[in-house]
Amino acid sequence: MSDHERSSIISPERLPNHVAIIMDGNGRWAKARGLPRVFGHKKGVETARKIVIKSQELGIKYLSLFTFSKENWQRPKEEIEALFQLLKEYLLNELSTLKEKGIRLRVMGDKEDLSEDLREVISLAEKETSANEKLHLILALSYGGKAETLRAARLLGERIKRNELSTDDISERTFRECLYLPDVPDPDLLIRTGGEMRISNFYLFQLAYTELYFTPVLWPDFTEKEYLKALLEFQRRERRFGKVYEF
Predict the structure, then answer these.
(1) Does the active-site annotation cover 132?
(2) Disulfide check for 109: which of 59, 70, 143, 148 has CB 3.0–4.6 Å away?
(3) Set 17, 26, 72, 93: catalytic member
(4) Which residue segment(s) compose the domain that 82 sits in?
């Protein structure tokens, strides 16, 4: 079945509103070809670009890409520098495309961990695309689900300390208000490439009722065809959110 045929049988009404992706397998892709890991990351950036554009074309409203985790700081310095250089180049080179296609860039995570020049590029891209609404492209950078949860708890504690809130007022709504991006809806579909079957500290609070899709395909080989397969699988599932439906 061609990509066009898959696209034609996808129901626009049943598309996930928010897709989150753990882009795994760049290093293994490069190693299998006898190449340095950075070549896998370069190929991974190309894949990300294609998936972003495809998401916008399909009408998906939110796309979250797990770009760099808190734990990733343990990687070799040279690899980290290469990753962030690729990210800066992507943001600068693709800014005009993001603006043209109505894509809003948003970054979540501990930005203070990032270099000043990268923060400046991120700030520029976020500002230049802030009015766009066709697709919210969310990059998780220096992000960890546990860190986000602890941050939210601290913010709630500070509000209580300032007498803005009582412990009886703590609810899912007030907790969400303290997340990095409180206005972003929970992911409907989480895709993880590379064959691993875990969520790796990504969106811990938000994934409560998210549909999970794992594929052995390494991220650099994750084509639009593979993306459409994941979306079709999502549309075949029955989402109950803890309820029981009688037939």
Answers:
(1) no
(2) 143
(3) 72
(4) 20-144+188-236
